[in-house]
User: Fold this.
Amino acid sequence: MLTLLSAMYIVVRAASSEADPIRVLVTGAAGQIAYSLLYSIAKGDVFGKDQPIILVLLDIPPMLPVLDGVVMELQDCALPLLREVIPTDKVEVGFKDLDAAILVGSMPRKEGMERKDLLKANVAIFKTQGAALEKYAKKTVRVLVVGNPANTNCLIASKSAPSIPKENFSCLTRLDHNRARSQVAMRCGVPADAVKNVIIWGNHSSTQYPDVHHAMVNVHGKEVKAYDAVKDDSWLKGDFISTVQLRGAAVIKARKLSSAMSAAKAICDHMRDWWFGTLDGEFMSMGVYAGGNSYGIPEDLIYSFPVHIKNKSWNIHDGLTVNDFSRAKMDATAAELVEERDTALSFLSQ
Ligand SMILES: NC(=O)c1ccc[n+]([C@@H]2O[C@H](COP(=O)([O-])OP(=O)(O)OC[C@H]3O[C@@H](n4cnc5c(N)ncnc54)[C@H](O)[C@@H]3O)[C@@H](O)[C@H]2O)c1
Ligand SMILES: *[C@@H]1O[C@H](CO)[C@@H](O)[C@H](O)[C@H]1NC(C)=O
Ligand SMILES: *[C@@H]1O[C@H](CO)[C@@H](O)[C@H](O)[C@H]1NC(C)=O
Ligand SMILES: CC(=O)N[C@H]1CO[C@H](CO)[C@@H](O)[C@@H]1O
Assistant:
């Protein structure tokens, strides 16, 4: 019996230690978010402590020397799960056989650049990268778009990769979600994980709607509604919302650089939940494809919804009541996305 058990143990161990490495792409890999992100991924915080990883790092040609430095540092971390690091500026190398793609790189706004021109440049980037996903990645690849405008870039990538399910594309609003969670927690004097089920609706911009009507706070072991825990409706309907909406700008003003550590942490949270699922009774915010039958949001947008995740698949958490205050804010951010989508699609077809 003992021998049988130990034999089984050895078989199981051998099987798990021989798990095939997964291929994970990070674009914008020479940038500041990636610098905070790559270590967490490579040490197993995202895809699990038993999952070997091949990291593919894509950036533009002038950044290749910088990328070499990042590769050296990853090697110098001596991480057991990290099997290979592949720096490249070529999409055919970068997108090959991917299990996960984290698209961080995009065209930044430059001095005097018009909004439309910026959008046009990003449509071109995400059209190319979507087409590369279509051509080179696994059909089961999970794609997370971070580079702004994240929602619309994600839509363009998805449309450029028609054979990969729309459900496999998402954009990052988890940073906004984490900001909302933390603001409520600080206000109530509880740890961040004592607050659950905040929601970010819509675009990752200042029109996003951080909603705590369905959030719960664990106060001394008892779950109470956020509105009852905070006991300050005017803060929740006013400064709380604008603080979360404008947090990115506040960080830039203070740091003279945009959020990187917190963005990297949010990327890890998003991907880890996608891989391993959300807790029962909890939902997280994720920009996902709106099919036209959730909360009255127009179809064919990437819009941030509350989702729960099981078996590596997300579902929009349906059935929450939406009051007039929320409705107006959800519709305003949707209208912004519709307009941006229509402009982006006109560039896509050019
Ligand atoms: N969704 C969110 O919550 C969120 C939060 C923070 C930042 N962002 C966005 O993330 C992006 C990256 O931020 P950062 O601080 O790391 O910027 P960064 O400028 O430090 O790095 C961006 C990197 O992307 C690279 N890049 C540009 N075009 C590329 C392309 N076509 N292919 C591959 N790489 C390319 C650049 O060369 C650069 O190395 C920005 O668009 C930023 O607005 C999103
Ligand atoms: C949507 O949000 C992104 C990211 O902040 C922003 O770049 C974009 O301008 C917003 N869209 C519109 C139409 O305002
Ligand atoms: C998840 O997948 C497993 C096996 O693939 C299946 O048995 C289970 O029913 C699935 N659960 C859900 C919620 O889809
Ligand atoms: C939602 C999600 O992550 N999923 C799907 C990606 O595509 C494969 C099939 O190609 C599905 O099995 C996943 O569930």
